[in-house]
From TrEMBL:
Species name: Pseudodesulfovibrio sediminis
Protein name: Radical SAM protein
Domain of life: Bacteria
Entry-linked Pfam families: Radical_SAM (PF04055)
Record keyword Iron present: yes
Keyword field: Iron, Iron-sulfur, Metal-binding, S-adenosyl-L-methionine
InterPro entries, alphabetized: BchE-like (IPR051198), Cobalamin-bd (IPR006158), Elp3/MiaA/NifB-like_rSAM (IPR006638), Methyltransferase_Class_B (IPR034466), rSAM (IPR007197), rSAM_horseshoe (IPR023404), rSAM_sf (IPR058240)
Length: 464
């Protein structure tokens, strides 16, 4: 059957969306004809240069506002309506739309337009904002979507298309979705967790016009799902159930494909962004990957997020650098050992973190880091320990993020607020401790102070 995948803004305009390339490949392998609409890059190319700043990290959260989305539709309504009409007039029986917290409001309006032009189109939302720990069923309640996928959609998407082609009246039996049924909803649970990631088809980039993207020779991949840590502030581990990784052989086969696809005379050495929660969850696979890249002569540059752990020795860092590893985002989050203990961060100490960061700096690896400001239990003296860490090591980082502590659903802080002396865990950003000391105003003040220390190295996420 014929179906479509639509990717709304905002998202990074520098490379095709990996998730859509992966979903398209799974459906294509099942014999379905897939059409891809990257509305994100099409909108980016449509707006003026002045408006393109809204795709930058410092502005991306502006999209999470009904007023901002309304303004975008006022200025570019004709273009968006024509786009929606083109999607609606196609032969696509099902249209899958990927949504994140920043893109969901815009996506809902586009879905409404598609339904306006063709009420018979079956619209399914998927992506992180549809997870049970995120917006979940609220997506259905606020939109015209017919269903949402509640977890990893690689297999569930193909199964939905199979059923729709074979017996559309039985579509509500497909596992992994919440379906709209009149005024009610039918919840079929979460999709089965894919244990063997090597069994997935490699992403298919034939659906994209690569010249549209802003940085040539740049691609994304994922080598694993989940995280081996269970930090108190994070929902990554519970959302993805358990940690899984692809084999080094499978990853290299994709890297070869990416080099062939993204290499050009202008960009002879592609850069691959590993979008995993962590690239070093399995050290054996990481070492095997590096050795295979070196032995094969594969000429790439790559980077990703990583844990600070004792296995990140100078020898391993040198091996990674030889294999083309050029940048890393460390999962540090605080410069205070006492705060790390409160966060339940394992596997490293501040002393070990300083050693690894210094070794990577000496090797010329570009480094990035976040410091979460105002974790519950962080005292003034603990905060000053982080400030001291920043003063000692800021020069070793390209950019430093300073997110204020937010309470995420499905995290330990959210599920066990009494353990962290939180009054109301549903107050995502404006939470207060039971003693009334740790408030948003205090956290903002501390962030402003760290911003002065970081100066031009600040990675501005535009949220505060």
């Amino acid at each position: 059957m014929e179906a479509a995948l639509l990717f709304p803004p905002p998202w990074a305009p520098w490379a095709p969306p990996y998730s859509i390339a992966l979903l398209a490949a799974q459906a294509k392998a099942r014999g379905h004809r897939i059409n891809v609409y990257d509305l994100n890059i099409d909108m980016y190319r449509h707006v003026s240069e002045e408006e393109q700043i809204y795709w930058n990290d410092a502005y991306v959260n502006k999209w999470d506002s009904e007023e901002a989305v309304a303004t975008m539709f006022e200025k570019h309504g004709n273009y968006i309506r024509k786009y929606a009409k083109r999607v609606a007039s196609s032969r696509n029986a099902i249209i899958g739309i990927s949504v994140s917290s920043a893109s969901s409001l815009f996506a809902m309006e586009v879905a409404r337009l598609i339904k306006h032009y063709d009420p018979g189109k079956y619209i399914v939302f998927g992506g992180p904002d549809c997870f049970r720990a995120e917006e979940f069923i609220g997506i259905l309640q606020k939109s015209v979507a017919d269903a949402i996928c509640t977890g990893e959609g690689d297999v569930a998407w193909g199964e939905l298309l199979d059923m729709f082609a074979r017996a559309p009246e039985a579509i509500e039996s497909v596992k992994g979705y919440v379906f709209r049924k009149g005024q009610d909803f039918v919840d079929t649970g979460d999709p089965d967790v894919i244990k063997d990631l090597d069994s997935l088809e490699l992403p298919d980039y034939s659906f994209f016009k690569l010249k549209k993207y802003t940085i040539g020779g740049r691609a994304c991949t994922m080598t694993s799902r989940g995280c081996i840590n269970k930090c108190a502030y994070c929902s990554e581990s519970p959302n993805f159930k358990f940690y899984r990784t692809r084999s080094a052989e499978n990853i290299v086969s994709e890297l070869r494909m990416l080099v062939d696809t993204f290499r050009s005379k202008k960009n002879p050495i592609p850069f691959v962004n590993f979008s995993d929660s962590l690239i070093n969850g399995n050290i054996r696979v990481l070492e095997d990957l590096c050795e295979r890249i070196i032995d094969s002569g594969l000429d790439i540059r790559w980077g990703g997020m990583a844990l600070l752990r004792k296995e990140m020795t100078p020898q391993l860092l040198k091996l990674m650098k030889k294999a083309g590893f050029v940048e890393v985002m460390w999962g540090l989050e605080s410069g205070s050992q006492r705060v790390l203990d409160l966060m339940q961060k394992k596997r490293f100490s501040i002393a070990l973190a300083e050693e690894i960061i210094s070794n990577a700096f000496d090797l010329g690896i570009d480094q990035y880091v976040n410091f979460i400001v105002g974790f519950p239990g962080e005292t003034e003296s603990m905060f000053l320990e982080t400030a001291g860490f920043v003063v000692r090591h800021a020069h070793k980082f390209q950019k430093i993020g300073l997110p204020i502590m937010e309470i995420r659903r499905n995290s330990k802080v959210y599920d066990c607020p009494d353990d962290f002396s939180i009054q109301d865990p549903t107050a995502q950003l404006d939470w207060v401790t039971n003693d009334g000391v740790n408030t948003f105003a205090l956290r903002k003040e501390r962030r402003d102070y760290l911003s002065l220390l970081v100066e031009s190295r600040l990675f501005d996420q535009g949220r505060y």
